[in-house]
TrEMBL record:
Domain (GFO/IDH/MocA-like oxidoreductase) ranges: 163-252
High-level lineage: Bacteria, Bacillati, Actinomycetota, Actinomycetes, Micrococcales
Species the sequence originates in: Microbacterium gilvum
InterPro entries in alphabetical order: Gfo/Idh/MocA-like_OxRdtase_N (IPR000683), Gfo/Idh/MocA_oxidrdct_glycsds (IPR050463), GFO_IDH_MocA-like_dom (IPR055170), NAD(P)-bd_dom_sf (IPR036291)
Stated name of the protein: Gfo/Idh/MocA family oxidoreductase
All copies of domain Gfo/Idh/MocA-like oxidoreductase N-terminal, residue ranges: 4-123
């Protein structure tokens, strides 16, 4: 079977990582690179040692010129909606970096556009793709009815740049990884959230770098997230430290190695591609088989709603129902959407 011909949009730092992933994958070939700065695109290709890749400023134009099969969107979150809709309308399946969009309303709009155009839109939640996390999910499935799931995340990165000035920096820019993984682990979507955020006196971030959030899931399961982005010393993994408690036992994962459980461990599965390589592998399989990926755009909206709900709760000091977040986002999406067909899908979803 011939390789999937891919046009990538975005050639910045994360874009370079995706160029590497596409080049490593046996079933993908980078045939086009799109960026508003053509010099940045050409420099990224030169550094990757790639020749013969088309360069341009329009995803649909470059994709048509090179007879592409798919688009990978690695632009900044604010550009996800227009880039994704352009590619979907031109007939291409899209793999888009997380978060799907800056707001739940925009995430719903592009998910509806994918349905209207009959094309796949998958969001890359790359931290689902770790062998250790896959093993933790296997352990969790044997614990019986779940009662509590918890993540501790403590890091002290000094990024500089835009993150230092972001509002709600931990919840908005990082916590979605853990929130999305919790959905995968628990196997359902959240019902409500209560959250608090704050900024220690020594923090180098303008916005709140520390947060605590408690999510209620179906059947009374509670997911607790405790995190800090200014906690030097004894730092956790970038995946955080996890504990799962069920009726028949408990499991723990340090975020790096293999999980441990109070039960006998199931047989280890075969190693699989990790992080963005794992996202890319699932996307390729979904395009070829037509099977729905685990982070299809419509399903992924719930992960972004967890972030938006946590921010609302931390801002208001009140418990927030996720259904209220989705209802308000749906209303906003319908209000601002100009495409009649997309708006009709949104109305159906809201009903």
């Amino acid at each position: 079977m011939s390789a999937l011909r891919v046009v990538q949009v975005g050639a910045g730092g994360m874009g370079r990582a995706w160029i590497g992933a596409i080049s490593r994958h046996d079933d993908t070939e980078l045939v086009g690179l799109v960026d508003l700065d053509l010099g940045t695109a050409r420099a990224a290709l030169d550094d990757a040692g790639l020749a013969g890749v088309a360069v341009g400023t329009s995803a649909s134009e470059v994709a048509a010129a090179v007879s592409a099969d798919a688009v990978v969107n690695v632009t900044v979150p604010g550009a996800h909606l227009p880039v994704n809709v352009e590619a979907l309308a031109a007939g291409y399946p899209v793999l888009c970096e997380k978060p799907a969009a800056p707001t739940v309303a925009d995430a719903l709009r592009q998910a509806a556009a994918a349905q209207v155009h009959g094309r796949l839109l998958m969001i890359s939640q790359s931290r689902r793709y770790f062998d250790g996390f896959a093993a933790l999910r296997a352990q969790t499935a044997r614990l019986g009815a779940l009662g509590a799931v918890a993540t501790e995340f403590f890091k002290a990165p000094r990024f500089g740049g835009f993150r230092d000035e972001m509002d709600h920096v931990l919840l908005v820019d990082m916590a979605i990884h853990s929130f999305d993984a919790a959905r995968a682990l628990i196997g359902s979507d959240p019902v409500a959230v209560y959250a608090e955020e704050y900024n220690p006196s020594w923090s180098w971030y303008r916005g709140a770098s520390n947060a605590v959030a408690v999510f209620e899931f179906a059947d009374g399961v509670r997911y607790t997230y405790t995190g800090s982005w200014c906690a030097p010393g004894l730092e956790t993994s970038w995946n955080g430290r996890w504990r799962v408690s069920g009726a028949d036992g408990s499991a723990e994962w340090d975020g790096d190695g293999a999980p441990v459980s109070s039960l006998d461990a199931p047989a280890a599965g075969d190693p699989a591609p990790e992080q963005i390589d794992g996202s890319l592998a699932e996307f390729v399989a979904a395009v070829r088989t037509g099977l729905r990926p685990t982070t299809d755009a419509r399903a992924n909206v719930a992960s972004l709603a967890m972030v938006e709900g946590a921010v609302q709760s931390a801002t208001t000091g009140r418990r927030v129902r996720i259904s209220d977040v989705l209802d308000a986002a749906s209303a906003r999406a319908i209000e601002v959407e100009s495409d009649d067909a997309v708006r009709a899908v949104l109305e159906t979803w809201r009903g």
